[in-house]
Write a structure and sequence with these properties.
With 71 residues, the protein is mainly β. The protein has no helices and seven strands. The chain has strands at residues 3-8, 13-18, 25-31, 36-41, 46-51, 56-61, 66-70.
Length: 71
């Protein structure tokens, strides 16, 4: 892939970086639920984030930069 996503547990965010230039470049940051512990790309334009304490899953559309659903 051309992106990497990192759970920023302390801040309740997921940060997305673009790869390919030698160093990761910041692309976007999303405020998600409390204590994000896992993030997975479902496709090149969608990722899912599991939040432990808030017991939820956020679905993020990377093409639009929005959270499209919270399960």
């Amino acid at each position: 892939g051309q992106r990497i996503a990192v759970c920023n547990t302390a801040d309740g965010r997921v940060d997305v970086f673009t790869l390919g230039t030698g160093q990761p470049l910041f692309e976007n940051s999303f405020v998600v639920g409390i204590d994000p512990v896992s993030v997975r790309f479902r496709s090149t334009t969608e990722m899912w984030v599991v939040n432990h304490i808030s017991d939820s899953v956020n679905v993020i559309n990377l093409a639009f930069g929005t959270i499209t659903a919270t399960l």
